[in-house]
Amino acid sequence: MTIRCLIIDDEPSSQIILKNFIKDVDFLELSGTCNNAIEALETLQNTNIDLLFLDIKMPKISGLSFYKSLPNPPKVIFTTAYPKYAIDGFEVNAVDFLLKPFAFERFLTAVNKVLELIPNTKNLIEPEYLLIKSNKVLHKIRTENVIFIEAFGDYVKVHLKDTFILTNSTFTSILKTLPEKKFVRTHKSFAINSEKVNSIKGNQINMNSYKIPIGQKYKSNFLKFINTPT
After folding, report:
1. In sequence order, which residues have a C-beta less than 8 Å from that of residue 218 and are 6 or more positions away?
2. What is the pLDDT of residue 59?
């Protein structure tokens, strides 16, 4: 299942950024790109769209006015270089508000919110890849190769079989992009791939050469998680 989305933005550079970001998210499908609201109206009349990436300040009619005029509007994430429009955007129940220029991590946080709101998408889509930015390099990693993630000061370590990647993304944002049916939090600083567990002894999980703590706050949920058939 995919979320069909439409870009409405009069800036070519913004269109390119959004196209590239959408391409890197498995559950998003780009159905079209429009330079203004008039073009978008024709597309919406002929295509089923689930999500709009909508610029606010555009010629002829603003994105906000256009969205208010739609009788049955799709979900919307507003994109703009003007923070003063943020309050107006949330008054029409926007999913999120992206202030240009925005990074991929911020974009991913916004689109993940859509999964909670569109029927029949939550828990059905298991991402195959994790995109992590480290030292200005964007790494594409298969989620099945992630053993666990670890909060490390202001950074997060994404542990793989023989190495780890250090990123300044937040622990919570990375955890949200991992498959819910496989990954579970065991401690305030750790979340693990349940398929990689070798054994559990007391408050410690053995995973290959790693020993992961189980926090008292997370123990009950963790034990329930690993004993629930997938």
Report:
1. 185, 186, 187, 188
2. 81
Element (H, E) at 219: helix 216-226
Do residues 180 and 230 lie in contact, with contact meaning Cβ atoms separated by under 8 Å?
no
pLDDT at position 178: 86
d(CA 213, CA 229): 23
Please count the helices (runs of H) and the strands (runs of E) in the chain: 7, 15
Give the span between the Cα atoms of 172 and 22, in whole angstroms: 21
User: For the whole model, what pTM was predicted?
Assistant: 0.55
Check residue 75 and give left, alpha or beta (phi > 0: left; psi -120 to 50: alpha).
beta
pLDDT, tens digit (0-9, with 9 covering 90-100), for 197-210: 999 998 999 997 89
Per-residue pLDDT tens digits for 56-69:
888 888 888 999 89
8 Å CB contact between 30 and 23 = yes
Per-residue pLDDT band for 123 (boundaries 50, 70, 90) equals very low
Place of tokens 């998680």: 225
Distance CA 98, CA 151 (A): 26
- The closest of 219, 146, 155 to 179, measured between CA atoms, is 146
